[in-house]
Structures are given as C-alpha cells and as structure tokens.
Amino acid sequence: MRYMLMRKADAETEAGVLPSQEVLQAMADYNERMIRAGVFATGDGLRPSREGCRIDFRNGEPRVIEGPFPATEELLAGYTVLEVDSLEEAIEWARQWPREDAGGNVTLELRRYFAMEDFEPGAGLDKHLAQTRMPRAVQVHLAFPGTCREAMDFYAEVTGGHLEAMYRFGETPAAEEVPPEWHDRIIHASLNIRGHRVMGADMMGDCYQAPQGAQVFLDYADPEQAAEAFRRLAEGGRVIMPFASTFWAKGFGMATDRFGVQWMVACPSDECP
C-alpha cells in the first residue's frame, strides 16, 4: 500500500523560514531509517504558497490564482510517500516524525493512494495497467577482478551515495566453493544513489570480463558538480571524451576509470530531457 504522509504548513513554513541544521540532520536520519527499511518512496519540502498558484477551472476554463493563500493550516509544507503493508504501519512511521521539527508541534496527515484494483475494468484502466508493467527500477551491475571493495568505496565517495551492502564470499554459503584467498573478496555490493543502485561483485578467473559496450551514466543538474565527478572518475584511468559543453548538454564527458568501468557524466541542458 502507498500512503502520503503530509506535513501541514504553519506560520514559519509560510514565512519561508528554513529548517535549522539540527532539524535537517534529524529529518535526514529519519529518512535514512525509512530508506533502509524499504518503505521510503520519495519526499520533498514545499516552498511557501506565495511562490505558487492555484489553477481554478470553471466550465473547463482555467483561471490562475497567485498565492499566498489563507487557511495556513490547510496548506502543505512537505510530504513523504511511504510503501507499507497497512495503515497501522504508516502510523507507526508517522509517530517517529522528528521532535526537532517546530519544537515537536506539527500536524501530519496520512492518505492512502488509490490502487488499480479499486477501479472497474475498461479501456481506460487497461492503459494504466500497461504502464504498471514497467519494472520498479533498472539497476546497474558491475564485475571486478578482485577490486570490488576499493571501487565501490570510491564510487560512494564520488557520488555521495549510501553503500548499503558489502558482503564477502566468506560470509556466505559460497565460501565452500571458492579458494580461501577469495573469502575476503566481495560477492555482492550495493551503492544506493537516490534510490537507484550500482551493484558489483568480484569474479574469479574466466568469469571476469572487462566491461565493453556499456557505460554508467551520471546525470547532474550542476555543471560544476558534474565536472568534478568526471575529474575524479577519470583520474588514474583514461579520458575517452573530455568534459565540455555540447549542443545538448551544459557539460558531457566519457572516461574509463582505473577499475576498468566506463562512465558518462553529463549536465543536460534545459531543452534536452
């Protein structure tokens, strides 16, 4: 079940008062607990209503009404989308909302999303069902000849992602099938970058093949961040295409890092999705 956990606005959020570092840290810790539990789908804070608008339709004609809006307590300051098994589970997560936020004086609201089975069969529903056949995510898996631990630690440092798994052969039943010198090598690693995963493993002997014909693509909004990530990934490796502006991107480059993995790093322009 999918629930939206809504944080209602108050006088401070409507005034545009930004959260303190203490609140930011508490919210980040809260989000991280939910990410690791597998219940966090997404979440964002909202700017004051004075920076937004409403589109009011009358007889099919839209009318734009600029903010701010009255009835502050009915507005939203932010939201979190939860993937849970029941309303009770969603409530338990809501109960853990950081006390640091507004001194512990906030109002939250939980609302369940509609699911496909709530609707009657028909052509319109069939189109929605076709969209649900898409996989939840497309992940990347990388092979290494014994350097997986070093590579994944490096990728976590470059991207700021969360290295959520790093299992050795010796920690699994596979330990009986590999030489003792391989017990400390990595059978599974997972780097979580905004909910997308770069996974990796060490491959023995002929099982390892250097990556060819595929690249890991990093998409940045800030050209300077993209350039710095590219510089670090290319260091000790080989630049295939220097990072520079192109007709479709504020910056784009291709490189093979020192572990043999190929990367594309880009900051697409606003005109190019």
Quick rundown:
InterPro entries: Dimeric_a/b-barrel, Glyas_Bleomycin-R_OHBP_Dase, Glyas_Fos-R_dOase_dom, PhnB-like, YCII. The chain contains 6 helices and 14 strands.
Provide an overview of this structure.
The chain is α+β, with helices and mostly antiparallel strands and 273 residues long. 23% of the residues lie in helices and 33% in strands. It contains six helices and 14 strands. Residues 1-104 form the YCII-related domain. InterPro entries: Dimeric_a/b-barrel (IPR011008), Glyas_Bleomycin-R_OHBP_Dase (IPR029068), Glyas_Fos-R_dOase_dom (IPR004360), PhnB-like (IPR028973), YCII (IPR005545). Residues 144-265 form the Glyoxalase/fosfomycin resistance/dioxygenase domain.
Radius of gyration: 23 Å
Uncertain regions: pLDDT < 50 for 5+ in a row? none
Strand portion: 25-35%
Briefly note the structural class of the backbone.
alpha+beta
Sum up the overall morphology in one term: globular
pLDDT average, as an integer? Answer: 94
Spatial gap, N to C terminus: 31 Å
Share in helix: 10-25%
Number of helices: 6
Biggest sheet strand order reads 2-5-1-6
Major sheet details: 4 strands, antiparallel
Domain Glyoxalase/fosfomycin resistance/dioxygenase: 144-265
Pfam families: Glyoxalase (PF00903), YCII (PF03795)
Domain YCII-related: 1-104
Family: Belongs to the YciI family.
